[in-house]
Design brief:
Elements: E1 3-7, H1 16-29, E2 34-39, H2 44-48, H3 60-65, H4 70-73, E3 75-76, E4 82-85, H5 92-97, H6 107-112, E5 121-126, H7 132-140, E6 143-149, H8 158-171, E7 177-184, H9 191-204, H10 217-221, H11 229-232, H12 237-252
Parallel strand pairs: 1-5, 1-6, 2-4, 2-5, 6-7
Antiparallel strand pairs: 3-4
The structure holds adenosine-5'-triphosphate and magnesium ion.
């Protein structure tokens, strides 16, 4: 049975999408079958994988609405072993449309539960908010990866995110685990970057991935070519970092996935 992992942090620009796309591609390289679900109306993961967002007719909107089956919304990508459920800007409407629906937090879970047998990993790229889209992702997920940018105010908002995770565990998904916190955009030359790493490791210990994602310009260039870092520059530091992260996740989940 596959594992569903949400990549979430309501703080914007911390590396959620970069992590989702490149972790998906790296797990694909390790011959795991991966589905990426774009649950962010910004649709950055969709365009980052080379899909023209304007051409998306079926995707996560229909998935959340239950107007199409999950299988009808899945498209292949050029990354080996990686499929995608794309997003479109229309997805913003879901936050409003679901508001007075019964079991509104369970729409995504119900839509994708059957896909667990078809994939080793299902990764959900979340929007920078703790609205219904993200609550659905946390309710559907087995675990959550929290990217933390090695920057000023790195820990800002983290308490609120951890409280949200606790309330999802209490109300909707008692089995939700924290897969790990991932330090991103690390620059060894900066004292600040090193301080953030020390602080996060001191506070959260084993919950933090051993792998740290370095700041690497190739990672920021790849999406404009619609390519993962593996395809864009397999020899880059960014590619090495994400392959190491994939390896860490596979080792950690050896018994279950
Ligand atoms: N390790 C890295 N090195 C260099 N640039 C990076 C790195 N990780 C992410 N970036 C860049 O930082 C910006 C924000 O990253 P990303 O889009 O992954 O964050 P996000 O958390 O998904 O943002 P949002 O909250 O808007 O969804 C992007 O321009 C991305 O290319
Ligand atoms: Mg994003």
């Amino acid at each position: 049975m596959g594992k569903i992992i949400a990549i979430a942090n309501q703080k914007g620009g911390v590396g959620k999408t970069t992590t989702t796309v490149n972790l998906a591609a790296s797990l694909g390289v390790l011959e795991k079958k991966v589905l990426l679900i774009d649950a962010d109306p910004q649709a950055n993961a969709t365009s980052g994988l080379g899909i023209d967002v304007d051409s998306v007719e079926l995707g996560s909107y229909q998935l959340f609405e239950h107007t199409k089956s999950a299988k009808e919304t899945i498209i292949p990508t050029t990354s080996p072993n990686v499929d995608l459920i794309p997003a479109h800007i229309d997805l913003v409407a879901i936050e409003i449309e679901l508001v007075d629906k019964d079991e509104r937090e369970y729409m995504l879970k119900k839509a994708i539960i059957d896909l667990k047998k078809d994939y080793d990993y299902i990764l959900i790229d979340c929007a920078p908010s703790l609205g219904l889209l993200t609550l659905n992702a946390l309710t559907a997920a087995d675990s959550v990866i929290i990217p933390i940018q090695c920057e000023y105010f790195a820990l800002e908002g983290l308490g609120k995110l951890l409280n949200t995770i606790k309330s999802v565990q209490r109300l909707h998904n008692p089995d939700l685990d924290i897969e790990g916190m991932l330090l991103t955009m690390y620059d060894s030359r900066l004292r600040l970057s090193n301080q953030v790493v020390d602080e996060v490791r001191k506070h959260f210990g084993d919950m933090v991935f051993d792998t740290v994602i370095q700041r690497n310009v190739r990672l920021s260039e790849a999406p404009s070519y619609g390519e993962s870092i593996i395809k864009y520059d397999a020899a880059s530091k960014g590619a090495t970092n994400y392959l190491n992260m994939a390896d860490e996740i596979v080792k950690k989940n050896k018994q279950t996935v």
